[in-house]
Amino acid sequence: MEGYKFFEQVNSAFDQAASYTDFDKGLLSQMKICNDVLHITFPLEKDDGKIEVIEAWRVEHSHHKLPTKGGIRYSMTVNEDETMALAALMTYKCAVVDVPFGGAKGGIKIDKSRYSESELERITRRYTYELMKKNFIGPGIDVPAPDYGTGAQEMGWILDTFRQMSTDINAEGCVTGKPVEMGGIRGRTEATGRGVYFGIKEACDNKEDMKNLGLEPGLEGKTFVVQGLGNVGYHAAKYMAEAGAKMVGVAEIGGSIYSEKGIDLDKLMEYRKEKGLIAGFEGTETLEDNSSVLKSECDILIPAALENQLNEKNADKIQAKIIGEAANGPTTAKAHQIIKDRGALIIPDNYLNAGGVTVSYFEWLKNIQHMRFGRMGKRFEENSYKKILSVIETISDRKFTDKELGFLAQGGGESELVDSGLEETMINAYNQINEIRKKHGVDLRTAAFISAINKVGIIYGRMGIFP
Ligand code: GLU
What we know:
By secondary structure, the protein is of the alpha/beta class. The protein folds into 2 domains: about 35-185, Leucine Dehydrogenase, chain A, domain 1 (Rossmann fold, 3-Layer(aba) Sandwich); about 185-375 and about 410-465, 3-Layer(aba) Sandwich (Rossmann fold). It is built from 16 helices and 12 strands. It starts with 5 loop residues before the first helix and ends in a 5-residue tail after the last helix. The protein binds glutamic acid.
């Protein structure tokens, strides 16, 4: 949208929240600015021998904790303002969920569909090399991860490139979201969507808040619309549907669909794989423009695509009672005000999509401790439960079946521990920001910013000034 400045939007939300804290003005300015902004260009030799210039960024927003952390985006929307805004959001997001990193973000301005796999590999490796040369990557410096347009494949290339040129014993921790075989962690791919589900569930379990919205507590039976069926949108929708919520609408590039009766997610994914788009999916109505489904009747709207999707043009037509911001920055400041004035609950991005970076934190810990979670304790726990169960058998005259034993005597392996850590993180952070929200009579976004500003500010306030 013309004149849209993403970093300014983030800062205006920050300023609003800062008025509820008593930090010095200069300190607040220090907190807001980006510490390092790296803009790089490099040549790519295409498969046909032609040379193309590639433009890319990495922004480290805040060094109050190290390493800095944040994804790398491959998209034509990438620019300096977007990367700065997203890096800043990472700082606040990490603080909200108590993940001990400063915020960062990277982006390469490319349309992925125009490049072959080997061209994408060359772009990714060269980008990594540039980051290394400029000291913008390393397990204790700055740790990239997947974002829009990137996934485990790209992270694998980043690690491999880094490892060629580094003797760091913790090299595996230079990037997260890697394939499991390369030091990645189970549960990272689904983490952001899973966190979105935990967050929305926690909000919906709050009886008082639901009553104020005119809704029953719980996810069961609630209708939802999702925008974007990428990694985040797909997994959020999957877990929502598994918990009994009904997906009634989907918006994607190239079409949006709606069905009051509900849409089967797996069948839709199969259809999209076959046809390349979602329009025309059986049993649904295909709407004219691809964002019109956002305005349809539903309890929960989950924007899981890019920023600036709910804006002053469509905000007054959005009917959802709950907006679950799975994407980063999907709602502009003006749209936020319009939706809030209507009485809807916005669960903000700087909390709701933090599941990705939370599990990235677990992956990084796994890498620097050089051991998978659960390796030491899983069998020990299982054996302890078995001992207790055998005592119960002796005193109760009841024999457990093998099935019961398998179910009751479970130790936590990597997947179980990651999921438990993620759930704990999302629930804990929700309750922290919900308390702040009630205390100050603000909305959840402002509450999340207040929480982040307090946590980051206390560290900046104690930082030594070096000559
Ligand atoms: N790109 C994700 C985000 O926006 C994950 C970042 C990370 O894992 O470092 O939160």
